[in-house]
Amino acid sequence: MNDSYRWAHAVETAHTWGQLGAVLGGPFGGPASMGMGLLGLIYGRITADAKIAEEETRVQTQVQKEVTKDQQLEAAIEKELERQRAFETQVAGATETAGKNRPVTELSQLPASVSPPAANSGGIAIASVAKPAQPQPPPAPFKNVEVKDLNNDGIADLWIYYNPQKPGEILRQEESSRGNSSVDTWSYFKDGKLVRRDVDSKGFGRPDTIFYYDDQKIVREERDENGQGRMTYRADYQDGRLAKVERDSLGSGRPDSWIVYDTSKDGEVVLKEERDLDGDGLPDTWSYYEQGRLVRRDVSRVGREILSKQEGLPLSSGAIRQPSLPGS
Predict the structure, then answer these.
(1) Phi then psi for 8, rounded to 5 degrees?
(2) Residue 278: CB partners within 8 Å, gap ≥ 6?
(3) What is the average pLDDT score of the chain?
(4) What are the tens digits of pLDDT across the range 52-83?
(5) Is residue 193 a contact partner of residue 185, using CB atoms and an 8 Å limit?
(6) Which residues contact 42 (CB under 8 A, 6 or more apart)?
(7) Cβ(160)–Cβ(170) under 8 Å?
(8) Kind of pairing, strands 293-299 and 320-321?
(9) How many Å apart are CA 44 and CA 12, to the nearest integer?
(10) CA atoms of 298 and 227, how far apart (whole Å)
(11) One-letter-per-residue 3-state SS of the chain
């Protein structure tokens, strides 16, 4: 995908410089615009790698922060679990010791008129002779992990992990939808709100679909449609509505089709569709829609040649024209 970003940056720089040349060129605005546009294309191509590197560094830094935060939370959960296990071991040991040191003669076996010696010494209250006091178990410590069996088949299918610092706040949730106790859905929360959900829909043991959320609304979806371990589909959402889809249908590692949707209407209404026909990461056809119907299609020179060979382009149609874009 970096090649397409490089060209996009270069074309944008060329366009900006071309406009500047048209303004500064005065009566020679046309040649000046072309010259400045060419220089802008070269400069944009040269500086694209630095811009991409800067963006990748920013993204990697953010990812590393999130990974570090997750590791810290996992460590806190593990520490809390160790504390709970130590506490339970201590309680069990104390109960066993008390049982061994209990006198052979129980209080209930003494005559009713006989009082135990030093019954009130040390401030210890003793119940009636006939019914000795029963030790009360300590309150259960807070649990960080809650396990549930939603369909009551005797097999756990939901695991909820809570923040040890904030009881009741969910950090992560794991689900098994196939009834075999194998986790296939991982949900992650921040401040109690869902931010990401990973789904293993094919049973490969790894997520093949990832949903991202902001303020409980979906903002992005990524899919591994070929099962090769990399995402070949990406959808962006606005206010919960589908806005744009990029797809790598050839498995080349970069998108070859782009579809833009009208977010002002209900349903998935296409506004624009672009396709890369020769696999260079750049669009070769641009299709425009109104009310879901194709009204115009622009084709590059390369795209025209490819479609002509495939007999997929009506050469005499007035609805299809060759654009006059730089590099087309």
Answers:
(1) -60, -45
(2) 284, 302, 303, 306
(3) 75
(4) 777 778 878 887 887 787 777 777 777 777 77
(5) no
(6) 10
(7) yes
(8) parallel
(9) 8
(10) 34
(11) CHHHHHHHHHHHHHHHHHHHHHHHHHHHHHHHHHHHHHHHHHHHHHHHHHHHHHHHHHHHHHHHHHHHHHHHHHHHHHHHHHHHHHHHHHHHHHHHHHHHCCCCCCHHHCCCCCCCCCCCHHHCCCCCCCCCCCCCCCCCCCCCEEEECCCCCCCCCEEEEEECCEEEEEEEEEECCCCCCCCCEEEEEECCEEEEEEECCCCCCCCCEEEEEECCEEEEEEECCCCCCCCCEEEEEECCEEEEEEECCCCCCCCCEEEEECCCCCCCCEEEEEECCCCCCCCCEEEEEECCEEEEEEECHHHHHHHHHCCCCCCCCCCEECCCCCCC
- The two three-digit tokens of residue 220, written as one number: 């992005």
Q: What is the pLDDT of residues 277-300, one digit of tens each?
A: 888 888 989 999 998 889 999 998
**Tokens matching residue 23:** 């303004």
Contact by Cβ (8 Å): 9, 48: yes
Strand partners, 159: 147, 174
